[in-house]
Fold this protein.
Amino acid sequence: MRVSGIYVHIPFCAKKCGYCDFNAYSGYKDGTKARYVDALCREIENFADPATRVPTIFFGGGTPTMLSASALNRILATIQASFAVDQDAEISIEANPDDASPEYLTALREGGFNRLSFGVQTFNDRLLKMIDRIHDGDAARRAVTTARIAGFDNISIDLMFALPRQTLADWETTLDSAFALDIPHLSIYSLIVEEGTPFYARRERGRMTFPSEKAEAAMFGAAIQRAVNAGYQHYEVSNYAKPDYESRHNQIYWRNEEYYGFGAGAVGYRDGVRATNICRPTRYIETALSGGNLTEESEKVSLADTMGETIMLGLRLRAGIDLQAFADRFGIRMEERYASEIERYVRTELLECTADHIRLTQRGLFLANEVMAAFLP
Ligand code: SF4
């Protein structure tokens, strides 16, 4: 039986954050959101395949919780009616802490969602304002408590470091606040200021300052050390979990396996083709409801690119790349095909070989992008 994860994109946000370069929009009215749900269900039904087993579903955005619980449950029910979703499938949804009322989260839990990921970013209210987030630290704490009462035990929060004018002390306080919640999963990323965002323009004009590279590395190091001391396993460059709470959906990405992408701007990867849907919600809605082609871009990924991407993504996992699985998939051993790259980075102590894996060293984690890029054609 064919196996595939499912990603569902909800492109709505209450307010666009100044650093965001995701396919996310504010200001859409309820009527458009309702039509978006119709369009999304239509797209899912068009791909219906009861012979495809689905072990994980992830609703991301944007802010999925901009939709009502009944709308989200309807989308999930459409997926369940269209594919062979595992009984124990991991069904995640990203949520804004401010949307986490007991009634709302209880309805999502009853609808079948079993994993919540809150976009917290920091517990420092001054920094939250600076990065345009609309919740405060206390709302994030309350959201976690409410989620537990609603029946969610699999809870994750996203945190970000290298925020404007953030100090190491600020960051350590946020980490300690997160650990105090005793949740089973944390995703911890540095803020990347992408070209085209308001933050990029402000930085270029000297109106926004960010921690230096050295300070950023110290924050990353503090996250790793403190999370491990707090009982988390650092299982991926940016992710930390208590035993058995690793994100199953994201592991599909990191192993470069297949997944559907439904919704505006969603990316899917099937049969070696990476396809991106129409990004603009209104055009996506019109096209889906009129039975048109939703694919805006598609690319057949070459074998060399697939191997390179499998290594790049696999190196994100702290366990590294399973050498036998690589050989079984591509019919060539990674140690032979990439002998010179491996030798170079083992010599410089950024990569290490175990009996059956190749992985980043602790030092290599801090130069991960450089090492990963060396394996791309
Ligand atoms: S909440 Fe997330 S997706 Fe929405 S604008 Fe902010 S960063 Fe972007």
In short: The chain has a mean pLDDT of 97. The radius of gyration is 21 Å.
